[in-house]
Every structure is written in structure tokens, then in C-alpha cells.
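Query structure, 527 C-alpha cells:
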């Protein structure tokens, strides 16, 4: 199969996703990371559309791309004007980008009813614009917008549009499923028909409105497309674009197309996380290849088989895309899950095999109460340690009390009220009881501060432990409303490691205390 070039449009099309707003610094950081990944073309934005994109193209000259080529995006000339006079084309040339992607209509309906120009004028707009940019020494790609819808309604005109671009010197004509509703079988048939109809490269640009953008992209490649366009994590308008992380992995690992190198491929998960962090978007843990759960095994049957044959429940080795295998314990766990988790925690030698069944039963009992250990490895290890004979906890709770007060003068603005949370904690370390009091911006924060105050005298290194995330959810165990059982999940770090702990109770403060205390105990246990 022919080589395939990767074209990333995260900085332009991806930034059109609801909830995403990238600064120039954000775009610079993402562009550098895409260059390291080995993406061939990076579409930086639309010069002349806004000051941010103009600044990006100016500053992008500092990057010094090693593997990528910067692309500027814009539209064909306006109707009833000339390419030389068109402000949009002038801005594209002024950007300095060596490659320019022009978007133009390839659908009869879009031309006559949206652009409101004649079919002949639209073809002239395409040809004139491409020829003008080529005469200025730029490489040109043509995005044939609404191509698949246009081909379905009037195939001859859709072909005329891309032939106009190819005849004027376009290096690629990129067939766009702009509305994202075409099926893979139709993508394959259309690209197969088009690939031999133009004397230039054919690319594919799919949106995900029918949830088949990745499948459509792969179908297009199998039909002859040699450029694929997409965005990291599938960001984009409406339901997003083709997810380039999945496309890259499938091209290389499933179709055998060496679109990037093996070492670059090992950074795919890292890039997925980096771009999500920069875009301030939640990561999907279930995203294929790069999600945290992509190679996670929960069922006892699965874990048992995985312990014998790595490929029994994995379609590729997670290391190839920079991810890792995870075995989680839950009410669905079997002895194999427990055995693998014990090995991961370095406890295999401490736990006799005859205890595995007891631990499975214990996990199932605790999960029936509302606990969940899939994302709380710290609490799972403590569960095991506490079940072992001779385990001595580093501290014990004597009691705690939390007071919350809200003050506001009668008739005053409610927003001007004062909130106060204060916690009193008594903990014992080797029989020495410490009684501490601390304030916080909420009851959990006050509890955390009081507990630390009591323990740091004995364990000074706990000062490095920080709470980084706090989640609460209602657990359906028969109660409802304010009397329901709640589960608190806390994530902590000491600057080097991260761990999560869990607490469950009908009392939110009690559940929070359990998770907080487990976090501190785990930090002491794992030193």
C-alpha cells in the first residue's frame, strides 16, 4: 500500500469544538509536540481571520520544524473579483506558510443556494485561486467541501470541482465529508471512483456526526487516498473530526502503513494527554489505544487468561502506543485479578496463596457496601495489608469533630456572608495522642489540615503529600436523596508518585475522613 501523509488540523478545525479556546502559546506548544510525533503537515489556522492566528504564523517561524510542514488555511477568492485583489489570498501569502490549503465548494446545492453563484463561477474561483498561489511559489492543497454529498447529488459537477483544482496545480484534492453523515461503504466506493479521475494526490477529511469518521478515513485509504486529515482526540465542530490518534494507530498497526516511526508511535498516549491538558478538555479514559482504560482488564476470566497469554484479551501490545496494561479488582474479580494486583504492589511474597480466595470475598463484600477499588489502588493495598496477621497501622483515630458556621447580617447581601469550617482531630501514634485543631475553606480541607498537624510531628515527610483531586458520587445501595450512601475518591501525590483512596458512608464527612486517612497511611506504608 502507498505511503500516507498525516495532516493535523487540531489548531484550526479542532479549535472550533465547543469548549475549546487555544491561546497562541497553546498553539505553539501543540505544534511542537505534533512535530515531535512526526505529523507531516500542521494546519496552524486561518490568516487574516483573527489577530491570534496572524500572531501564531509570525511566531511559528521560531519553531524550526524538524518533521512537519506548516500549513495556512483559507478559502478561494470571492465571487466576481480577481485572485490578485482578494484580501483572503493576500493574507494567506503574507503568512509565510509554505503550504496553503484552500477550501471550496464541490456540491451543486452548496454553490447555488449557499454561495449563491453560478456553477461556472465557482469553478473559476477554484482554478483562479489555486493558480495564483502556485504562481507565488506555494504548494497548494484543495479541500473539496461537501464533496461526498455533492457527489451523491451530482457526481459530474463534484468531479469538475476537483479537476479544476488539480488542473490549476493543486498537489492534493482532499475529499471532505463535511456533514459527517456518509457511511464507510459509500466512502470506499466514491474514493475508488475518484482516485483515478484526477492527476494529483487524493486526501480524506471526515467529520464524526455518524460516529464513523475513523472508519471512513481508513476506508478512504484502502480505496486509494494518500493523505489523511484529522485532529488529536477527535476535537472539532459538532461531534468532532476523525480522531488522528486512532487513525495513526490503525494505519501503522492494522494496515501496515509506516506513517510515523516506531519510537514516535510510543509517544502517542503522551500526545493524547498533552493536547487534552493544553485544551483544558477532560480525557476520555475509554478512548481506543490511548485511553487509561484501553488496556484495562476487570473480569476475572479475562485476568486469568491475561496471566497466561498477553494477547488473549489485547489486540495490540499497549507499549507500542505508549500505554500500559492494567488489572483492576472489583466484584467481578477472580483470584487471578488479586494475584496480579498483589504482584504489581510487591505483596506476592507476603500473601499466601490460600488467602487469595479470602481476599476475593473481602473485595466483593466491600464493594457490596459501596466501596470501589478500580481507581483506588491505595485503599486496595491497605485492605490487603490490614488482612495480614501482625499488621500495625502507623496511626489510629481517637475521634474527630467538624464545625461549620455561616454568618450574615440580617438584610445584607447573601454573597457577603462569611463561611467558617473548623476540624478537631485526635490521633494516636504508638499510644501518644495528639489533639489538633485547624481551619479550612471547607470541612474536608479543615479535616486534612488538622490530620496533617497531628501526624507531621511524628512523620515530617507527610508535608510533601498533597491532595490533587476530590470526587463525590452517590452510590445506589437502596437509600435515596440526602440519606443515600456516598463514595469519596481522593487522589494524592508526594511529587513523585500518585495514588487514589476511597471512603464510603451515609455521612459525607465520614467518607471523606476514610479516604483522607487511607491516603496518609498509604503514603507512610509505601516509603
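Result returned for the query:
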Amino acid at each position: 500500500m502507498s505511503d500516507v501523509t498525516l495532516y493535523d488540523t487540531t489548531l484550526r478545525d479542532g479549535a472550533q469544538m465547543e469548549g475549546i479556546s487555544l491561546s497562541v502559546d497553546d498553539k505553539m506548544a501543540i505544534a511542537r509536540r505534533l512535530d515531535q510525533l512526526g505529523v507531516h503537515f500542521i494546519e496552524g489556522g486561518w490568516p487574516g481571520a483573527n489577530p491570534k492566528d496572524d500572531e501564531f504564523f509570525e511566531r511559528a517561524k521560531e519553531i524550526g520544524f524538524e518533521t512537519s510542514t506548516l500549513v495556512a488555511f483559507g478559502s478561494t477568492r470571492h465571487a466576481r473579483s480577481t485572485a490578485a485583489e482578494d484580501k483572503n489570498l493576500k493574507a494567506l501569502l503574507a503568512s509565510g506558510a509554505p503550504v496553503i490549503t484552500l477550501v471550496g465548494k464541490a456540491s451543486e446545492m452548496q454553490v447555488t443556494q449557499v454561495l449563491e453563484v453560478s456553477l461556472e463561477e465557482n469553478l473559476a474561483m477554484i482554478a483562479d485561486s489555486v493558480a495564483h498561489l502556485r504562481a507565488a511559489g506555494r504548494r497548494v492543497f484543495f479541500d473539496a467541501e461537501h464533496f461526498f454529498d455533492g457527489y451523491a447529488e451530482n457526481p459530474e459537477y463534484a468531479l469538475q470541482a476537483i479537476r479544476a483544482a488539480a488542473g490549476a496545480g493543486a498537489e492534493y484534492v482532499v475529499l471532505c465529508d463535511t456533514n459527517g453523515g456518509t457511511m464507510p461503504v459509500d466512502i470506499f466506493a466514491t474514493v475508488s471512483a475518484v482516485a483515478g479521475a484526477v492527476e494529483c494526490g487524493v486526501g480524506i477529511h471526515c467529520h464524526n456526526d455518524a460516529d464513523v469518521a475513523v472508519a471512513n478515513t481508513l476506508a478512504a485509504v484502502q480505496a486509494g487516498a494518500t493523505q489523511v486529515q484529522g485532529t488529536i482526540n477527535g476535537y472539532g465542530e459538532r461531534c468532532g473530526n476523525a480522531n488522528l490518534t486512532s487513525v495513526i494507530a490503525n494505519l501503522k498497526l492494522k494496515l501496515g502503513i509506516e506513517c510515523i516511526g516506531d519510537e514516535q508511535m510510543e509517544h502517542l498516549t503522551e500526545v493524547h494527554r498533552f493536547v487534552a491538558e493544553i485544551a483544558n478538555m477532560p480525557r476520555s479514559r475509554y478512548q481506543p489505544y490511548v485511553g487509561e482504560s484501553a488496556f484495562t482488564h476487570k473480569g476475572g476470566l479475562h485476568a486469568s487468561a491475561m496471566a497466561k497469554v498477553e494477547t488473549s484479551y489485547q489486540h495490540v501490545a499497549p507499549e507500542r502506543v505508549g500505554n500500559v496494561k492494567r488489572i483492576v479488582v472489583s466484584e467481578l474479580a477472580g483470584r487471578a485479578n488479586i494475584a496480579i494486583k498483589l504482584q504489581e504492589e510487591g505483596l506476592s511474597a507476603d500473601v499466601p496463596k490460600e488467602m487469595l480466595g479470602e481476599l476475593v470475598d473481602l473485595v466483593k463484600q466491600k464493594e457490596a457496601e459501596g466501596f470501589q477499588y478500580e481507581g483506588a489502588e491505595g485503599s486496595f493495598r491497605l485492605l490487603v495489608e490490614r488482612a495480614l496477621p501482625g499488621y500495625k497501622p502507623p496511626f489510629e483515630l481517637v475521634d474527630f469533630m467538624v464545625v461549620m458556621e455561616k454568618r450574615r447580617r440580617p438584610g445584607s447581601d447573601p454573597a457577603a456572608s462569611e463561611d467558617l469550617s473548623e476540624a478537631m482531630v485526635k490521633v494516636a501514634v504508638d499510644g501518644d495522642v495528639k489533639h489538633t485543631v485547624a481551619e479550612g475553606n471547607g470541612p474536608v480541607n479543615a479535616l486534612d489540615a488538622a490530620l496533617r498537624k497531628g501526624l507531621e510531628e511524628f512523620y515530617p515527610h507527610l508535608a510533601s503529600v498533597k491532595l490533587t483531586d476530590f470526587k463525590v458520587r452517590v452510590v445506589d445501595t437502596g437509600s435515596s436523596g440526602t440519606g443515600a450512601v456516598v463514595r469519596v475518591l481522593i487522589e494524592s501525590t508526594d511529587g513523585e508518585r500518585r495514588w487514589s483512596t476511597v471512603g464510603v458512608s451515609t455521612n459525607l464527612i465520614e467518607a471523606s475522613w476514610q479516604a483522607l486517612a487511607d491516603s496518609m497511611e498509604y503514603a507512610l506504608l509505601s516509603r
